[in-house]
Amino acid sequence: MVELSPVTWQAGLHWVDLLGILAFAMSGALLAVRKKFDLFGVVVLGCVTAVGGGAIRDAMTGQTPPLFLRDETYLWAALAGSLLGFGFGERLARFERTMRFFDTAGLALFAASGALGAIKIGLGPLGVIFAGTISGVGGGIVRDLIANEVPEVMYRREQLYATAAAAGAWVTLLLYSRVPLWQAQLGGALVVVLLRWMSRRGWVRLPVRRLPSERPK
């Protein structure tokens, strides 16, 4: 099996990260368009969604300043995604599948890349999973709070979100020492996509604890 050179891998990882930034920014911008935010509001929500998870991860792991401030190409990608969401939001917002696609793509890419970043600085298994999860869902949580929504990770049991990100980070960790890095990241991302797809079809979901007064009689 051929291993990619460090330079090639770093370049590929950078572009994958930018794709995730673009995807998340469009997801946040589309929500802002639905909420009837103005251009400034759309850009803010799109950018916060795109870089929020990574910023939280970097702050927790002591990597300061956050990556998006050390490499402004991430901010440019977030800005581009936000403007695309604003420019085409009226059309794209009609298609729920489009929003789900961008959201799932961002979640998958960031969960896997966040896990690899945590492995690189020597975190343990739980730390890697947590860092990968927060990388994927952190921006979405901040997005929903700014938009006055209950974060979906708290209640959308029929569409796995944080759980899918955690599973993707875990698979990335398992594959890290067994396959080339890009395959580990791809494997983790595909697990996120698969779990999201299965949950939307009702094949996988998390249990919900109901109070006695809420149970059907």
Automatic annotation (TrEMBL):
Highest taxon in the source lineage: Bacteria
Residue stretches making up the Glycine transporter domain: 15-88, 101-176
Keyword line: Cell membrane, Membrane, Transmembrane, Transmembrane helix
InterPro entries associated with the record: Gly_transporter
Gene Ontology cellular-component annotations: plasma membrane
TM annotation in the entry: 12-32, 39-57, 73-89, 101-119, 182-199
Pfam families: Gly_transporter (PF03458)
Chief site of localization: membrane
Topology in membrane: Multi-pass membrane protein
Protein location: Cell membrane
Assigned protein family: Belongs to the UPF0126 family.
PANTHER family: INNER MEMBRANE PROTEIN, UPF0126 INNER MEMBRANE PROTEIN YADS-RELATED
Name recorded for this polypeptide: Trimeric intracellular cation channel family protein
Protein species of origin: Deinococcus cavernae
The organism's taxonomic lineage, starting at the top: Bacteria, Thermotogati, Deinococcota, Deinococci, Deinococcales
